[in-house]
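dude i think i finally got it to work??
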Amino acid sequence: MTAHPTAEWTAQQFREAISSDHSYRFLIHDRDSIFSAEVDQTIENLGMKVLRTPVRAPQANAYCERLIGTMRRECLDLMIPFGEKHLRTILREWITHYNQGRPHCSLGPGLPVATSKPTVVSRTHRHQIPEGWQVVKKSILSGLHHEYQFKRVAA
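look at this
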């Protein structure tokens, strides 16, 4: 991170972040001045095609805007980072939660990563926890969020 990014700095970040055996095909970016022709050339030299969003069309960057908005609402609006290192720690934990433990509506709502669940569903009542299982809570970001999963009870 830097307070004043330049085109040269941006190109260097891409060179460091994208490995030689990557499978990326495209890089989508807006028309900010840090994405100069030299940066675009660097990206193309890395084997990717540069796609620029249309002028004055914020909806064209909807996926990125949605993720950033979710990150702000669920994490950054509720915490005060005390520096860059603390911010990175907060975001690392939130991103793991987002990608592995947070329900996503597009999944029905389901979790991106399957968790352990009872193999035998209670026949008497669907909201009853089957014998031999318990619900365990894991706190995320010091209790800002929680993840729940089934665990087998030790015999």
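The CA atoms of residues 98 and 112 lie 9 Å apart.
im so relieved honestly
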